[in-house]
Amino acid sequence: MEVLQYLEVQNINPALIRDIKKFREQYPVADEVKHRVVKPMMPFYGKEILEMGIAAMLQKENLLLTGSKATGKNVLAENLAWIFGRPSYNISFHVNTGSAELIGTDTFEDNQVKLRKGSIYQCAQYGGFGILDEINMAKNDAVSVLHATLDYRRSIDVPGYDKIELHEAARFIGTMNYGYAGTKELNEALVSRFLVIDMPDQTEETLEKIFAEAFPDGKPEMMKQFMGLFMDLQTKAENGEISTKAIDLRGVLAALRTIRQGLSPLLAVRMGVVNKCFDTFEKEIVEDVVMTRIPEEWKTSDIFEG
Ligand SMILES: Nc1ncnc2c1ncn2[C@@H]1O[C@H](COP(=O)(O)OP(=O)(O)OP(=O)(O)O)[C@@H](O)[C@H]1O
Ligand SMILES: [Mg+2]
Questions:
Q1: Which residues surround ligand 2, an ion (CB under 5 A)?
Q2: Contacts of 269 (CB under 8 A, 6+ apart)
Q3: For position 182, what pLDDT does the model report?
């Protein structure tokens, strides 16, 4: 099976792989939601983090993934759903997220009031993996409707309808970035219902794997320069010389894709990295780092194989 192969290549503990296999056999997926079991666009790299996530899911825990932007929180959540062979439901939290969206809302159908089931309800029913994306964007009282869902009660009280129990295979994975505009502190009672993984900074090892996966046609010595650029900036941010605005792996990967499209490397990096700083002083520092890594005269053909 493709999933098990992926886990073996990642060198995941065989005891975990064995139990994932059991889990998958134990919980077949209903036909009507099979289309929601999807292979993610990219694998998650990072054995330790993956093992932490898998162990939590096996033990019926919910998982909260915290960390800065582009550290792979959503990639990890999607991979976990796929590893466990479950339908996934992505729920983007925002200031107006409320119980109607999460649990359900009354609608009129055939002259009757019926419940239009929200995403959490559907997870409960089908044993889905609910990805509670940017969970700290929502107001705490909106999220408090999930307290009974997320703890040992594993139930949802649907106002005006019944109380329903969560399917044995249902799990919830929250993601959050702290400190961003619009985010709130999660209240302790909510955090208490999750195991928390603080996503680590990228290491050279994970970067190499991500780049090799995304750009198999990239010239290896050139890919090293782009990884080096990212690592240089990450180090500068760790040392407090710059903020984390320019530390955006997503931006570096996007820049490389526009280079492959034919754009000059320097212009591409300006869009993907440099222009993410709005402070002129900081921008200059970032530009200096870019200049040492990416010479102006480089072209697409220097970076990618014909
Ligand atoms: N460990 C990793 N394994 C695989 N890909 C990764 C990893 N870390 C980062 N990435 C890359 O970074 C990109 C962003 O990942 P993702 O969307 O999961 O980040 P995020 O942590 O959810 O960020 P945000 O907080 O901004 O939503 C992905 O497209 C992927 O290419
Ligand atoms: Mg995300």
A1: 73-74
A2: 229, 252, 255, 290, 294
A3: 67
What percentage of the chain reaches a pLDDT higher than 90? 82
Residue-wise pLDDT for 145-187, tens only, equals: 899 999 999 999 888 888 999 999 999 999 998 766 667 778 8
In the chain, where the domains are located: 2-198, 204-303
Ligand 1 atom 12 nearest Cα: 70
Which ligand 1 atom sits closest to the C-alpha of 46? 1
Q: Is the CB of 118 under 6 A from ligand 1?
A: no
Asked if pLDDT for residue 234 goes beyond 80, the answer is yes
Specify whether the CB–CB gap between 66 and 238 falls below 8 A: no
Instruction: Point out the ligand nearest to the CA of residue 74.
Output: 1
**pLDDT value of residue 65:** 97
Residue 175 in contact with ligand 1 by CB distance below 6 A:
yes
CB of residue 46 inside a 6 A radius of ligand 1: yes
Beta strands in 163-223 (DSSP E): 163-165, 171-176, 195-198
Task: Kindly give the distance from the C-alpha atom of residue 65 to the centroid of ligand 2, in angstroms, as a whole number.
Answer: 9
pLDDT digits (tens, 9 = 90+) for 98-150: 888 899 988 888 888 888 999 999 999 999 999 999 999 888 778 888 999 99
- Phi and psi at 158, nearest 5°, equal -100, 110
Describe the crossing of helices 280-293 and 220-238 by its angle, rounded to 10 degrees. 150
Q: Determine whether domain 2-198 maps to CATH 3.40.140.10.
A: no
Tell me the torsion sign for CA atoms 177, 183, 185, 191. negative
Indicate which atom in ligand 1 lies nearest the CA of residue 43: 4
Of ligand 1's atoms, which has the minimum distance to the CA of residue 65?
Answer: 21
